[in-house]
Write a structure and sequence with these properties.
The chain is of the alpha+beta class and 638 residues long. 48% of the residues lie in helices and 16% in strands. A seven-stranded mixed sheet has the order 10-22-21-20-11-18-19, with helices on both faces. α2 packs antiparallel against α3 and α9 packs parallel to α23. It starts with 13 loop residues before the first helix and ends in a 22-residue tail after the last helix. The relative contact order is 0.12.
């Protein structure tokens, strides 16, 4: 028996040269990985494989050790190749941005320059059927732009110039989709001229690519458990191998060489190769699939957690509604004060970038004659209440009823009657006071998204039991919208800190909980939720940075898709883990009935490739069926 396992170190000539070469080339990267992980105090699969290969050489089984390292390296290479399908899906996003752009500076002809040299404020000419090099807004031309690379929208979006370039530069984040363009998107048949709003390095596409590349930093709960499991699993395996060696030698009187070979085979059989890759492969494929659908998932933690959500809170404005209010009522005060209502309100709101302010200026500015125009200064926002400004030395207050009740101010009876009537119809109301006079009340309303009710119904079908709407609008407005879209609970009159408190209260009975909003005004509430989902994040840098999951387009219908993808990913992870552990159990038993080390490695690496292939199925999850029965409605344009 000892002769069969005689030590091969004295071997000379070409056989030894070839075996050493096989050990070197087969184990080069394995050695580097093992040293790196061992220095960090982690004993991983690579370490176990090296020990087994060296052990085979010690007892003269050079061929077995060479086959082990060859198959292990080949398995890793095939595994990397398979995973590259998912990573290439991510990396290909970066290739959408062109390398150069036609820039018009001054009155000269456009000059082609590298995109790295484009500066904020430059005018870039976009030829038909070419890719857009930078984020910006349209100042000339009409065209339809294919934004699928960034937002996941399947239908090109019509683009048109802004009305006021200077105002557009101040309000980039609130510009409508018809005016904004993104780097990497494809122009249609028209010629566009855009003003650049970000450099190439800071474009929405660049941020998306970077965030997806680093998505694995947010480790999923399952992967965290696997990491903890492996910390004690590897030492236990080493201990088990030592026990196998001793029992074989002393209990069964096996020669050292034979007992050592069996121990090394057990070591290889118990190595958790497939287990180590089971979760990362599924997470990478899931994140890549989501990115292709215009859903940016920041890693395994939110991807896996979203599928377990049982309660979801929604902001009202811009989420369940379009966030495009229109003026629906104007109630001036009696007497000369009433005539000042519209000019005063337009002057104050023209200084603000708030959606309600934009609606008021858009709908009422035309009612103010040139002779009646006034100028406002010193605009100050009062959180959750309204704004303050100054006109001709007089203090002007524009806000909700709370703003004036806190000052112990009471509306005149006719205005209070008009206020209650408009409030009961679900309008958002702004009271205007100039100096010591109430000028009147203006009401606005925001249309609900057509797909909101369908999305909520789809979420209920996915076992999301509690659907809550939280809003800063008064309770009657919240109730009206809630009834229209079919929300379970509508909560109104909430300040930002109140929204956080409501999320905390809901978390006490429903965990985990998700919050869907714009990612800017709702950032505190989204941070308090287990999962923060930002709508229309392609247009907001803040939203991209503050949320856990970003819907790049302004498409609420992607939320149920993200939930389904999360659950599919979790299902794949469970399948992979069960298969991995089953293979380890089978191989450990098989080694004691005579399975040699080469066959063990072959089965091990084969199971790893099967696990990876199973994970890659997520790349084709619901391809072309992201809305799944939800009728998407284009955003209204004014």
């Amino acid at each position: 028996m000892i002769a069969e396992y005689a030590m091969g170190l004295p071997m000379l000539g070409w056989p030894l040269v070839f075996f050493l070469a096989t050990y070197f080339f087969g184990g080069f990267f394995t050695v580097r990985t093992a040293i790196s992980s061992t220095l960090r105090g982690k004993f991983e699969v690579d370490f176990l494989m090296l020990v087994a290969a060296l052990g085979a050489a010690v007892i003269g089984q050079w061929a077995e050790g060479a086959v082990l390292l060859f198959l292990f390296s080949l398995g890793h290479a095939l595994e990397e190749y398979a995973l590259s399908r998912a990573s290439k899906s991510i990396e290909s996003l970066a290739e959408f941005a062109p390398r150069s752009a036609l820039v018009r500076r001054g009155d000269g002809e456009p000059v082609e320059v590298p995109v790295e040299q484009i500066a904020v404020g430059d005018v870039v000419v976009i030829r038909p059927n070419s890719r857009i090099p930078s984020d910006g807004f349209v100042v000339s031309g009409l065209s339809a732009v294919d934004q699928s690379a960034v937002t996941g929208e399947s239908i090109p979006v019509e683009k048109e110039p802004v009305d006021d370039t200077e105002r557009a530069m101040r309000t980039v984040d609130t510009l409508p989709a018809a005016n904004r363009v993104f780097a990497g998107t494809v122009n249609g048949s028209g010629v566009l001229e855009i003003i650049v709003t970000t450099t190439a390095a800071d474009s929405t596409l660049s941020k998306v690519v970077e965030l997806v590349r680093t998505a694995d930093q947010a480790t999923s709960p399952t992967q965290q458990f696997i990491d903890r499991f492996q910390r004690w699993y590897v030492p236990v395996v080493v201990l088990g191998v030592a026990v196998t060696l001793l029992v074989s030698m002393f209990a069964f009187a096996e020669p050292f060489a034979a007992a050592f070979y069996l121990a090394m085979t057990v070591l290889v059989a118990a190595s958790p190769c497939a287990l180590a890759i089971a979760t990362p492969a599924a997470v990478l494929a899931g994140v890549a699939r989501a990115a292709r659908a215009g859903v940016l998932v920041k890693g395994g933690a939110p991807l896996e957690t979203l599928g377990r959500v049982r309660a979801m809170a929604f902001d009202k404005t811009g989420t369940l509604t379009w966030g495009l209010p229109r003026v629906t009522s104007v109630a001036p005060a009696d007497g000369p004060e009433g005539a000042l209502l519209v000019p005063t309100l337009v002057a104050v709101e023209s200084l603000s970038d708030h959606p309600l302010a934009i609606a008021i200026v858009r709908d009422l500015a035309g009612q103010v004659p040139d002779s009646g125009r006034v100028d406002a200064t010193d605009l100050t926002a009062v959180t959750g209440r309204g704004v303050l400004a100054t006109i001709d030395g007089e203090r002007v207050e524009v806000g909700n009823l709370r703003m004036f009740e806190e000052q112990q101010l009471t509306l005149p009876t006719p205005l209070m009657a008009a206020y209650e009537k408009a409030r009961d119809s679900g309008q958002t109301l702004m009271i205007v006071r100039r100096g010591d006079r109430f000028l009147g009340i203006v009401g606005v309303m925001d249309a609900s998204r057509a797909e909101s009710a369908q999305v909520l119904s789809a979420l209920r079908g996915a076992n999301v039991d509690q659907l809550v709407m939280i809003s800063g609008d008064n309770q009657r407005v919240a109730d009206a919208v809630g009834r229209e879209v079919g929300i379970d609970t509508a909560l109104g009159e909430l300040l930002p800190e109140d929204k956080v408190a409501q999320i905390a209260r809901l978390s006490e009975t429903h965990r985990p909980i998700a919050m869907v909003g714009d990612g800017v005004n709702d950032a505190p509430a989204m941070a308090r939720a287990d999962i923060g989902i930002a709508m229309g994040a392609a247009g907001s840098t803040v939203a991209l940075e503050t949320c856990d999951i970003a819907l790049m387009s302004d498409d609420l219908g992607r939320v149920p898709f993200a939930v389904r993808l999360s659950r599919a990913t979790s299902k794949i992870i469970r399948q992979n883990l069960i298969a991995s552990l089953a293979v380890v159990g089978f191989l450990v038993i098989a080694t004691f009935v005579g399975l040699n080390i080469g066959a063990v490695v072959l089965i091990h690496e084969g199971s790893t490739l099967i696990v990876v292939a199973n994970a890659l199925r997520l790349l084709n999850f619901e391809r072309g069926k992201e809305h799944h029965g939800i009728d998407h409605e284009d955003k209204p344009r004014h």
